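To whoever is on call:

I kicked off a structure prediction for a single chain this morning and the downstream step that reads the tokens threw a length-mismatch warning. I double-checked the sequence; it's 349 residues and nothing unusual in it as far as I can see. Pasting both halves so you can look.
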Amino acid sequence: MLACPLPVDETLRQHTLDEMHLLDTPAEHYLDTLVRLTQDLAHVDTVLISLIDQNRQWFKARVGLDASETPRDISFCGHAILGDDTLLVPDAQQDPRFADNPLVLNAPYIRFYAGHPLRAGNGKAIGTLCMLDPRPRTLSAAQQANFKDLATLAEGYLQLRSLIQSNRDLRMEMDREQRKALLDPLTQLWNRGALVAFEQRERRMAQENGLKLGALYADLDHFKSINDKHGHAGGDQVLCESARRLRAALRPDDLLVRQGGEEFVALLRVKDGRELQRIAERVRQLIGNEPMQLAAGPLQVSLSIGCTLLAADEQVDHALGRADAALYQAKQTGRNRVVYAPPTGLAKA
């Protein structure tokens, strides 16, 4: 196997990537949508937005692959960032650079690969939009042009993302290693520790904008039976797809975390309880309206939600206890529904 070489400007390239503060951040709806669109258009198993870090490639968005990262020295994308155009590998088994690569010899058994470099504003290649398939194939000129257009969209979003205010706030409050410790590797959501880390920030942002802080406590219905019937791999697929749909239903500034198991929590800045309930209902519908596609076939999944507003100076844990009680009521009254629990003094909010 040909070891993945380093770009001649590697130090500056790595510094550029670090300064964009993209690594070890939660997945995002817009990029999730882009990789799924690429998968549908190209009819491939896997599409990734891969960021080339010092010793690894880390996936900011992914569909068709469970891993969140792989070593850089065996990455195809490490080769792709060396050029200006799309790297096409019609059959990795016939390419001396990759024929004995572990990713070819073992899962995901890459045969076809296409990767287009994604660049920062200064022109440095920070990663790729790439697609993989276990079957050898090639791309027509029109397909290659479409793939480059999709890469342009991904590149533009990543550049713009590093400039938004919410990201600047996040950079001021914690460094990369702290962010990494707060990520759930399976769903690429924040984990429950993020509620503690960001509670005061969310409360401050709500107050500065004249809004209230609301909490959603959501739980997938009958998840144990999904694991029993489809195995943990099927259960993990349901969790990842649920996370994707939750991101799609919520707004970019909403704080979404995987609380544990099949439970999810979101903190939202809202005008009142009615707006909170409308958002919760949108979340419930987006989870349950369309079946999830598993290897064994389509699976209908539903979600129960308890929600509440935080009273003035109320701790998040206390409010989550009330939302959890509302979730329990939703489960007891038939599941697949939203129950709102107003805090004391805000019964009509």
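Update from on-call: the warning came from a stale cache, not from the record. Cleared it. Sanity check on the structure: The CA atoms of residues 81 and 117 lie 5 Å apart.
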